[in-house]
Amino acid sequence: MIEKVVSLSKRRGFVFQSSEIYGGLNGCWDYGPLGVELLKNIKEEWWKSMTYREDIEGLDASILMHPKVWEASGHVANFTDPMIDCKQCKARFRVDTLGDAISEKKKKKIIRAFEENLSDENKEKLNDIYNIHEELDERFEAILESKDLSFELLSEVNCPNCGNKGQFTEPRNFNLMFKTFVGPVESEDNVVFLRPETAQGIFVNFVNVLNSSRQKLPFGIAQIGKAFRNEINTKNFLFRTREFEQMEMQYFVKPSDDKKHYDEWKESRIAWYKNLGISEDKLRFHDHPADKLAHYAKEATDVEYEFPFGWGEIEGIHNRTDFDLSKHQEFSGKSQQYFDDETKERFIPYIIETSAGASRSFMAFLVDAYHEEEVNGEQRVVMSFHPKLAPIKVAIFPLVNKDRMPEVAREIEADLRPFMKVFYDSKGAVGRRYRRQDEAGTPYCITVDNQTLDDRTVTVRERDSMEQERVSIDELLPVLLNKLK
Ligand code: GAP
Predict the structure, then answer these.
(1) How far apart are the C-alpha atoms of 84 and 446, rounded to whole Å?
(2) What is the pLDDT of residues 217-245, one digit of tens each?
(3) Could you tell me whether strands 15-17 and 29-31 are parallel, antiparallel, or unpaired per DSSP bridges?
(4) Which residue range(s) make up the domain with 458?
(5) 368 lines ligand 1 (CB under 6 A)
(6) Residue 94 belongs to a domain with what CATH number?
(7) Percent of the chain with pLDDT strictly greater than 70
């Protein structure tokens, strides 16, 4: 199914491979005319839901930041993936993903052989893993993630690329941040990083926003922007890319209120996806177990969507405690404390973070909208986007290109254009024009026909039900605005 979505994306102009005429650039994608509208609408809905309220302010921080930011945040030391190379074919892999392509039967066999050769010291470490994880897959992944055990397990594993057994280099840590230089001199002193998350731009502006907006706890700062990660393995279309967009909101709270706000944001974020039409049965939370929490988190959950290749995270919700502001206070020497007028206390607020991928959400909305159905013996592909997200809101067709129908259709187009994205199409049979708009996900199509010339009414056809109603041209704008709400 994913192949069909990728193919439709290219054919209809949602997503193209980056630099395609040069063979493409791995992990980078371009949004075409329909894609850029869909992405913009997703971001707009998120922005409205976050900042059209009293307690959340917007921000747009720069992508390049002072290099100390990434030392304070822990990214220089910790934002790494363990990586190995196959000595035979030179293919490179993220160690923890090596189990993905191995069958359960094979995993059992590999683990049995690995257990037989273990030293006593490592047997104890293995027991610790077995005490935490019961499932085979989880045990396998935990062994791969263990610094002490992974290399021994790997001696039993075949290279997913060339099939040779146990021919891997020792795992090495690979930092995922892209490096570049400010100014003309390419020296270590001038190194800066492309931000791997937008969140740090918010943390370092906490005091600026607090002072300029005169907010009181609890309050949030929201930001949408590009982030860059030099992922070892990009995969699954837009799911894991090297350049992507995030929609992040950091909510600053009193430490004693952290649990309450964490739970509230969890519910409100999953509801956002449901309200924009994502199938409820394809959404779930995945709470992080204590031994898998990121170094900054006290509690964390992922909002997951069931993609055709399995469940995958589209958003992370984290209780980041006072970790980030404390670190920035320590590294910058500038106080990040909040003064509470009522209790007269000074403290560093806790942060509840909601971190959504705009590009990953885009992919979830795209996949979820894709439907194939048979209508009168013919196959139709329809993208059932929520009207708020649909790239084109209304298409306008003259039934035939004569008898003043094109002129009336153009008049309607001119009336609607200031209010919504419209598309004028006069080519081919009207049934085919409907099919083209179904594939683009356009919720309403207006047809100017013979009756229009008599009574100034048009047909308005709804995409999913394909039902048609007649609406007076004079009523068209309010009727459509109401339907698109
Ligand atoms: N500030 C916290 C943070 O960045 P994360 O879980 O690493 O947390 C948050 O990323 C979201 O960003 C993910 O849920 C995902 O939607 C998106 N994301 C992360 N890495 C990505 C990648 N390589 N490609 C596309 N989206 C990505």
Answers:
(1) 57
(2) 999 999 999 999 999 878 789 999 999 99
(3) antiparallel
(4) 392-483
(5) no
(6) 3.30.40
(7) 100
Helix (H, G, I), strand (E, B) or coil at 334: coil
Instruction: Count other C-beta atoms under 10 Å from residue 180's C-beta.
Output: 11
Report pLDDT digits (tens) over 287-309. 998 877 887 889 999 999 999 99
Q: Which residues contact 219 (CB under 8 A, 6 or more apart)?
A: 55, 56, 57, 210, 213, 251, 252
What's the 336 CA to ligand 1 centre distance in angstroms? 26
**Is the Cα torsion angle 78, 174, 235, 111 positive or negative in sign?**
negative
Q: Is the CB of 447 under 6 A from ligand 1?
A: no
> 316 with 218, same domain?
yes
Structural domains in the chain (count) = 3
The residue type at 289:
P
Mutation test residue for ligand 1: of 246, 278, 304, 317, the one with most atoms within 8 Å of CB: 246
Q: Which residue has the tokens 């060339």?
A: 162
* Boundary residue ending a domain (158, 175, 192): 175
State CA 423 to chain mean position distance.
28
CATH number of the domain that residue 437 is part of = 3.40.50.800
